[in-house]
Amino acid sequence: QGQLVESGGGLVQAGDSLRLSCATSSRSFAAISMGWFRQPPGKEREFVAGISWRGATYYSDSVKGRFTISRDNAKKMVDLQMNSLKSEDTAVYHCAGGKEVGRSWNSSQSWNYWGQGTQVTVSS
Asked: What does the pLDDT look like over 31-42, one tens digit per residue?
């Protein structure tokens, strides 16, 4: 299984937009679910968004309507477009891949592969 490598994090102001990308060399990319989790300072890792191999998308209530997840199977990439950023979106964002996520999108245990993470800091 190829590594997951995130990019696109940074420091922005509240209300700004940011786009995260996750790239992999995995041969099975097109057949697995992909997702984004985040870990705010001093808190546990939490589900942000997920996309099935068919393209069905899932979002946490806290980002629904502001974030959009997408995937490009030909490029083996998954992106997270983040709009209207808030200070509470500050976290390390991790890309994740799952072979059999099922209905448990928001559980870390459902995911098999993880990236190292990229820092997103939103100043108010």
From this structure: 999 999 999 999
